[in-house]
Specification:
The protein is mainly α. The protein is built from 7 helices and 4 strands.
């Protein structure tokens, strides 16, 4: 997947905005926007989401070779926040992640505690064994434990 920041400039110009005006609207630095437009720097997915919403275009306008949705971008950031909170420790069994990913990060999975309004406060980082335990057994005590642990933070 490649993100093409050079596609910002035509949208900005079509709205008659300067780099400074766009920067003020989307809370970014003019320098960053200029670098994105010149292809000197690649915007992160979260920034693309903000720009897509501002310009009323689909996020895929900026993405080459891959299709993403707003939900996928939000979920990736939620997962990152949840994994950071867990610090490599399963939030259910309180043991270290069973192995390390190729990028050096501990391997944990996400478990959604609520069906609506997905945010980091409704997602737990658990080891693969606990994820299966939660999915198959669905023990109310485990859910209550996770909710109390996460909501307390």
């Amino acid at each position: 997947m490649k993100i093409d920041g050079t596609r910002i400039k035509p949208l900005r110009e079509s709205m008659g905005l300067t780099i400074q005006q766009l920067a003020d609207e989307v809370d970014l630095s003019p320098s960053a926007i200029g670098m994105y437009e010149r292809g000197q720097r690649t915007p992160k997915l979260k920034i693309i989401l903000v720009l897509a919403e501002f310009f009323s275009v689909d996020v895929n306008y900026f993405v080459i070779g891959f299709t993403v949705s707003h939900e996928q971008i939000e979920n990736s950031y939620i997962a990152a926040e949840v994994f950071e909170r867990a610090s490599g420790i399963c939030e259910l069994c309180n043991t270290m992640a069973p192995f390390i990913r190729s990028n050096g990060q501990p391997y944990l999975e996400t478990y959604i505690l609520k069906d609506h309004s997905i945010s980091a406060e409704h997602v737990a980082a658990v080891c693969p064994n606990c994820l299966k335990k939660l999915e198959v057994l669905q023990l109310p005590g485990n859910i209550i434990y996770l909710k109390n642990k996460i909501y307390k933070n």
